[in-house]
Design brief:
A hairpin with a 2-residue loop joins strand 1 and strand 2. With 250 residues, the chain is α/β, with parallel strands linked by helices. The strands form 2 sheets. The protein has a 6-stranded mixed β-sheet, with helices on both faces. The protein has a 4-stranded antiparallel β-sheet with strand order 2-1-4-5, covered by helices on one side. It contains 11 helices and 10 strands.
């Protein structure tokens, strides 16, 4: 589905990504994780086509993502950012209708799609005509998800979508999101800094450090067969131990 080939990227004077290669399979949830500044969000933005690599290439469905085709490619992607990224002067309905209107979809088709996704994400109809400031943080993230799903994308990118929410709302949305991913059978690439959250969602976890991939696999792989002292320290910092990791995961 997505192949990252020997990507490097410098921002300012900092080398943010250093020769990363990664193959992401379709229909699976892949989670990028690591400490602040490790390059996970930059990698996500490169895959979405919001940034361009200094070196290397990214392919989607066998085609390189390039400036010439990026707008067409993005119509096959959905993108959710941490705080929702909703336009404050537009209602919920207007926010989620932006791309269908831009692509000249028929209004009845757009309305049907909004109603379908509102039901899927547990958004009540009365919220659709409110403004972002009039709904809660959890509701704003649901709206952002609806907007990302409006064009029925093949790949869904999420950049710390739950990071700004309080623990109870975050817990509920984690379970809802996982059920949505499973029911839609979408390819998902999610960025988080929380290893417990990563293990909850992921078919594959990609742990990054200093612009490189430190290890990829499942949490049990990291705990039982860490590739470096950094991996052991990262796992331990999140409250998991090499011995007894199974009991932590239940």
């Amino acid at each position: 589905m997505i192949n990252v080939r020997n990507i490097s990227k410098t921002l300012g004077t900092s080398l943010v990504l250093d020769g990363i290669s990664l193959a992401l399979s379709p229909g699976r949830t892949n989670v990028l994780i690591g400490p602040s500044g490790c390059g996970k969000t930059t990698l996500l933005k490169l895959m979405v086509g919001l940034l361009w690599p200094d070196k290397g290439s990214i392919e989607f469905d066998g085609q390189p993502i390039e400036p010439e085709n990026v707008y067409r490619m993005r119509q096959r992607f959905g993108y959710v950012i941490q705080n929702g990224g909703l336009f404050p002067h537009l209602t919920v309905r207007q926010n989620v209708s932006l791309m269908p209107e831009f692509l000249n979809h028929r209004p009845p088709q757009t309305t049907d799609r909004i109603n379908e996704l509102a039901q899927l994400t547990h958004l009540s109809q009365d919220l659709l005509d409110r403004y972002p400031s009039q709904i809660s943080g959890g509701q704003r993230q649901r709206v952002s998800l609806v907007r990302a799903l409006m064009l029925d994308p093949e790949v869904l990118f999420l950049d710390e979508p739950l990071g700004a929410l309080d623990p109870l709302v975050r817990h509920d949305l984690q379970h809802e999101l996982r059920e949505i991913f499973r029911s839609l059978n979408k390819s998902v690439i999610l960025v988080t800094h929380d290893l417990r959250e990563a293990s909850f969602f992921a078919d594959q976890i990609v742990l990054m450090k200093d612009g490189r991939i430190a290890q990829q696999g499942q949490l049990t792989d990291f705990a039982r067969n860490p590739a470096s002292p950094f991996v052991s320290k990262f796992v331990g910092a999140h409250g998991f131990e090499v011995a007894g990791v199974q009991s932590e995961l239940k």
